Amino acid sequence: MIISHTPAPASTATLAQRAAAIEAALEQRGLNPAEHIEAQAHLIDEQWLPENGARVVARAWTDAAFRQRLLTNGRDAVAEFGIQMPKHHRHLVALENTARLHNVICCTLCSCTAFTVIGLPPDWYKDLEYRARVVRQSRTVLKEMGLVLAPDVEIRVWDTTADTRYMVLPERPAGTEGWSEAQLASLVTRDGMIGVAAI
Amino acid sequence: MDGLHDLGGKQGFGPVRYSPNAAVFHAPWEQRVNALYGLAVKLGIFNMDEYRHAIERMAPRHYLAAGYYERTLTSLATLCVEKGVVTLAELEQLAQGGFPLALPSAPGRSNQAMRERFVPGDRVTVRTDLVAGHVRMPAYIRGKHGVVVSASPAYPFPDAHAHGVAAVDEPTYDVRFEALELWPEAAEPAGVYVAVFQSYLNRRSDQAR
């Protein structure tokens, strides 16, 4: 088979045309792409939601035994909520923030995340700027993104270079004593579980 | 491969274009393409390591100019052509225009013959391998010292799995590096934790503390 690697001609098809072309080719081979696209749209809208991780975090804030299970084996712990992870994500590590320690996750080589737990990655997470800079200029990058950390807070950056997945377990905010798990979960955001936003 | 995708620590980039609650997709075709590559993996047309490597093989000027889902689209199309599912001519006819693909792959490699088991606290040095094919060792840790903090279950070895080369699964170790040792006097202090495959690691020879 001959594959052309010459520079794209001036008449390069638009991205929408190219996407439609590969979909049409798979359709012609009887692989039912439209059905799969529809099914995945439902998963994105209904199941792969940051609200999953938010429930996990709220439980960890209120149940010390659960927090220990989460820190020991994240994959099994989120399964208690019915949250599935893809087969190739064989390990989930929860990273506990404290008053003196702040964790943040990234993927410098591509854009891997625990998407079934914290949601699909936002645009900026996949951009070149975040991937290039956060490992080397973590404090400045976080500050630019609106998260100012005290000088005595140690920063730990986790680069998702294999199929182990990470999520940040933020600190429980002050003044939330007596809140229900549901109330607490409503505070937890995707960006908080990536580690770029305060809760 | 020492490709442009290997961005960790590269300088010259401006601020992250951040907004709270930022969108995942920006056009309908992006979600469709994201689903299609998932379908192809599910059907066994290619695996995740082949998928990642086909993104890395994009011509550098194409990679840097493309958004995330154009990279997904290009990898999906490249692998479907390379695996004989579709021809480039057919894709270009359906798209009514040019369809740039990724460049050809270099050969892969199997696991290192000599691999050690590590436990948390072990001091390790990343090997200095230069790999033309797929590799999940970011260049910024090459030859650097770190400390193992945890171990994962065994995973397919990406350097082999992206190329159809036989290999055994091996664990990855979360290794702590110091930003100030990765980029001496040229980084902000932080612990940088990287999931490193067993084949990329040696026990540190000088165990002096």
Summary of the model, kept short:
Chain A has helices spanning 15-28, 33-46, 50-62, 64-72, 74-79, 115-118, 123-126, 128-133, 138-144, 181-185, 190-194; strands at 91-96, 101-106, 154-159, 164-169. Chain A has 199 residues and is α/β, with parallel strands linked by helices. Chain B is 29% helix and 16% strand.
Folded structure, characterized:
The complex is a heterodimer of chains A (199) and B (209). Chain A has 199 residues and is of the alpha/beta class. Helix content of chain A is 44%, strand content 12%. Chain A contains eleven helices and four strands; from the N terminus they run H-H-H-H-H-E-E-H-H-H-H-E-E-H-H. Chain A has a two-stranded parallel ribbon. A two-stranded parallel ribbon of chain A has the order 2-3. In chain A, helix 3 packs across helix 4. Chain B has 209 residues and is an alpha+beta fold. Chain B has two domains: 1-105, Nitrile hydratase, beta subunit (Cyclin A, domain 1); 123-203, SH3 type barrels. Chain B has helices at residues 28-42, 48-56, 60-65, 68-82, 88-95, 158-161, 179-182; strands at residues 123-126, 145-155, 170-178, 191-197, 201-203. In chain B, strands 4-3-2-1-5 form a five-stranded antiparallel β-sheet. In chain B, helix 1 (28-42) packs parallel to helix 4 (68-82). Strand 3 of chain A pairs parallel with strand 4 (191-197) of chain B.
Major interchain interface with per-chain residue totals:
A-B, 81 and 95 residues
Structural class of chain A: alpha/beta
Please mark out the parts of chain B with pLDDT under 50 across 5 or more consecutive residues, or reply none: none
Question: Whole-number average pLDDT of chain B?
Answer: 96
Strand content of chain A: 5-15%
Task: Report the CATH superfamily of the largest domain in chain B.
Answer: Nitrile hydratase, beta subunit
Helix share bin of chain B: 25-40%
| Major sheet summary line of chain B | 5 strands, antiparallel
Number of domains of chain B: 2
Strand % of chain B is 15-25%
Quaternary state of this entry equals: heterodimer
3D shape of chain A: globular
Order of helices and strands of chain B: HHHHHEEHEHEE
Provide the gyration radius of chain B in Å: 19 Å
Gap from first CA to last CA of chain B: 33 Å
CATH class of the largest domain in chain A: Alpha Beta
Number of continuous helical runs of chain B: 7
Radius of gyration of chain A: 20 Å
Query: Main sheet of chain B: which strands, in order across?
Result: 4-3-2-1-5
